[in-house]
Amino acid sequence: MHGLDIRRLLAAAMCASSMAASAPAVAQAQYCKSDELFAVVDRTGQRLREINAAGQPRLRSKLQELAKKNGWADADVESKGQLAIEDDVIRGLDTRAA
What we know:
Largest sheet: none
Structural class: mainly alpha
Radius of gyration: 17 Å
Number of strands: 0
Shape: elongated
């Protein structure tokens, strides 16, 4: 779902939490081999895809409930759903993650 961009939100949250949890390790990052870094990025990406895939059915269901409640046409569900849940915090996270 383009506007909701859960992947970017999750990526920003995971990045922030991993940075906070591993602050002492940041100084060691210069010694990290590129293949090790790529492996971590791949595993993280895979986990984010799993989380996103697991959450999509629930998100779609909730959007459909919202659409039904508000009488939205099927073609308008995504755009109107985005407007309904988007706020300054979400926009800020999207901007930082871009």
